[in-house]
Write a structure and sequence with these properties.
It is built from 9 helices and 12 strands. The protein has 2 domains: 122 residues, Nucleotidyltransferase, domain 5, CATH 3.30.420.40; 149 residues, ATPase, nucleotide binding domain (Nucleotidyltransferase, domain 5, 2-Layer Sandwich), CATH 3.30.420. It is of the alpha/beta class. 33% of the residues lie in helices and 21% in strands.
Length: 295
Amino acid sequence: MMQYFGAIEAGGTKFNCAIFNDAREILAACRIPTTHPQTTLHQAAAFFQTYKHDYPLAALGIASFGPLDLDPKSSEYGYITRTPKPDWSHTPLLDFFKQQCGCPIRIDTDVNGAALAEYQWGAAQHTDVAVYLTIGTGVGGGIIINGKPLHGLVHPEIGHMLVDAPPDVEGVCPFHGNCVEGLASGFALNHIWQQPAETLPIEHKAWQIEVGVLSQLCHNLMMTLSPQKILMGGGVMAKTGLLERVQAATDSSLAKYISLPSHQHISDIICSPYFEQDAGLYGGFALAQSALVNL
């Protein structure tokens, strides 16, 4: 019998909602602006209610912006915790959709969800350790180890890894200043250089700094996690030539300290995701399927 799965990619600017069948086909979808929590969540729930007779959900997966409380023992499990997004701190995402949908639900970060989708069907298949990075308005990272999203004290916050920057450039992260997100996100590029990132020509100093920051990030991930894949997605990575420059700079900084398998090049490890801009939504689907099994 065909099963149906709900998926939510809960982002800071929009909620992407979809219903999949177990053949990974999208049967219905909608996009909802992220405004006030009550408005946005009720609109998302209404989408699934519209199709409840045609496509009754076996499970729902939520791949959300964070930070999230992912400790099942916590009284705020499934909540968005402290976030700079106005009005969204301490929003009980999991509890809300449990009440509205009445089916098994799995929640994780948007980037852990995307990493899981890439591991199951995309560019990170057959890996033991894989990292999914999104370099967009912000910077986030999800990690899959032996087929499972990494959780720990909280969850990975790769975008807030501290890195070196030129002395004349000041990062914009209100918490950490010169972290990856504070220097290399789309928001940071716009703020530091006072123009949209996509309008900066490739020879602009901004991209030299961007390559330096992102290659430090990849270097540190290679040394700490030894991943077989580092998938670099997000709007900023759409800049022509950026990925190739990050690959080359990382290869140089590693200085042959890590011996790659004879048949591999750094471009086989640091590469683009399969799902590109849809990774988060397919991540929600992957989480929904995992809600029916004991990961």
